[in-house]
Specification:
The structure is a single chain. This protein has about 140 residues and is mainly beta. The protein has 1 helix and 11 strands; from the N terminus they run αβββββββββββ. A 6-stranded antiparallel β-sheet has the order 4-5-6-7-8-9, with no helix packed on it. Strands 1-2-3 form a 3-stranded antiparallel β-sheet, with no helix packed on it. A two-stranded antiparallel sheet has the order 10-11. A hairpin with a 7-residue loop joins strand 7 (about 95) and strand 8 (about 105).
Amino acid sequence: LIVVIIIVIILLIPGTTTTTPAPTGPPSTCRIWGDPHFETFDHAFTNNFAEGEYWIVKSKMVFIQGRYMATPYTNGLSATHAIAVGGPFLLGHTIVVGPMDNGQILIDGQPALAGFGSADVAGVAAVRYDDQGTVVDA
């Protein structure tokens, strides 16, 4: 009888569930380009010319970091060299996008998209490399 009661109690104990938290605000975008210029989620503009790795987004669900390095074209000032995206929203997967001239796109540390096309990130996200879009500074 005690074993049956223990089994019933175990079956009635709610299990742990994992859910994605609701967004804390309205959808928004930020933009990062060039040497490096930022338009923030609240539409402010800033520039950062120091080399290093910096958080762009660090929330409970989304991690985005940027790497900024000097280039021959920027007279010692930094420019965007790579962007890394990860966090729980990608279920443990990572995407790293390097510069067009000598970088590459990595998905979970493996090279992907050496040319135009798209790649699936384990059914969680898709990465597309193409010639579409607009020039931000134009």
